[in-house]
Design goal:
334 residues; alpha/beta; six-stranded mixed sheet; 38% helix
Length: 334
């Protein structure tokens, strides 16, 4: 997989559209001025799915930013299936959209369709997630977070959580992973393990880890199984807030107190996560900003006009401890 840390700061492009199944949606808009005159830019955007509050906020940001920019947006929801995204991208190529953008379900398996887009001279921009390709020129840029660093941040903030809670002895961690093969799942696990190996090889141990597919239902189901097989778990690291919220239901059903008996660190920063944190059920959240739409539209315009962009535009993000939740909650935009 491409190492995002090897990229410069970056940019984004766009596209996806189409006739893809019942999940495809379209959003029309008006005129945008390009270098060759006044013309409506058509952007094809393939979204990975609608599996979480974060993803909904991300889709809404793309749609509203495209409308504000005056672009014609062809939007499709892949329902977390790579074959749906590939079909959508091929549909966009057939429609001869100006730019294609997509948030990939998984990191591998894109070379063939990206080569088709390149042959059609349609620039491709990645959003949120990276891909692994045989040729870096198959896409123009990536706009999104550094997931490996988010994993490191989760590890470092867990240190603060453990100290504040006064937890003594071995730290027995359950990890709820994101969708298998997805960049954020791979990289958030990697960054967290880097902190463990460097600073806590003797006292921290991931005793159980499994995917919850970034969903609340998945988090609830998998956490219930975790507690049956490993009842002495005292820390949960969830790759997103939705899985953490689902896990809280299972923790409470088992007669334990989330945030006390089991310390919880999660990633994203959606409102429901902050609500749970304000209630003392999540101890810390590592923010991952989904509001990529405005940045993406700027990149689309630049790419469409033949301008150059950097390989990676990183989003600005923060970390939050439990005692910051109540004050921060009214200002959350997603």
């Amino acid at each position: 997989m491409l190492n995002r840390r090897n990229f410069l700061t970056a940019a984004i492009g766009v596209a996806a559209a189409g006739t893809l199944a019942a999940c495809a949606k379209e959003d029309d808009s008006s005129t945008s001025t390009s270098g060759s005159g006044s013309k409506t830019i058509t952007l094809g955007f393939s979204q990975v799915g609608s599996e979480s509050g974060w993803r909904t906020a991300n889709s809404d940001s793309v749609k509203s930013a495209a409308k504000e920019a005056g672009y014609k947006l062809q939007f499709s929801d892949a329902q977390q299936k790579q074959e749906n995204q590939i079909s959508a991208i091929r549909s966009y190529i057939q429609q001869k959209v100006d730019v294609i953008a997509f948030s990939p379900v998984v990191v591998t398996g894109w070379d063939a369709v990206l080569k088709e887009a390149k042959a059609a001279k349609i620039p491709v921009v990645l959003t949120d997630r990276s891909v692994e390709t045989s040729d870096d020129s198959l896409y123009v840029t990536l706009v999104g977070s550094d997931f490996t660093d988010e994993g490191r941040r989760a590890g470092k903030i867990l240190e603060k959580v453990i100290e504040k809670a006064g937890l003594k002895g071995d730290v027995k961690i359950a990890q709820l992973e994101g969708t298998t093969g997805a960049a954020p799942a791979i990289e958030r696990a990697k960054g967290f393990k880097e902190v463990m190996d460097a600073d806590h090889a003797d006292d921290w141990k991931i005793v159980v880890t499994q995917t919850g597919d970034f969903t609340r239902a998945g988090g609830k189901q998998v956490m219930a199984a975790f507690l049956q097989s490993n009842p002495d778990i005292n820390v949960l690291y969830a790759h997103n807030d939705d899985m953490a919220i689902g896990a809280i239901q299972s923790i409470e059903a088992a007669g334990k107190k989330p945030g006390k008996d089991i310390l919880i660190v999660s990633v994203d920063g959606v409102k429901d996560g902050f609500v749970a944190m304000s209630e003392g059920k999540i101890n810390a959240i590592v923010e991952c900003n989904p509001l990529l739409g405005p940045q993406l539209m700027e990149v689309v315009k630049t790419v469409h006009e033949g301008g150059s962009v950097e390989r990676w535009i990183k989003t600005k993000e923060s970390d939050f401890m439990q005692d910051q939740a109540k004050d921060a909650l009214p200002t959350r935009k997603y």
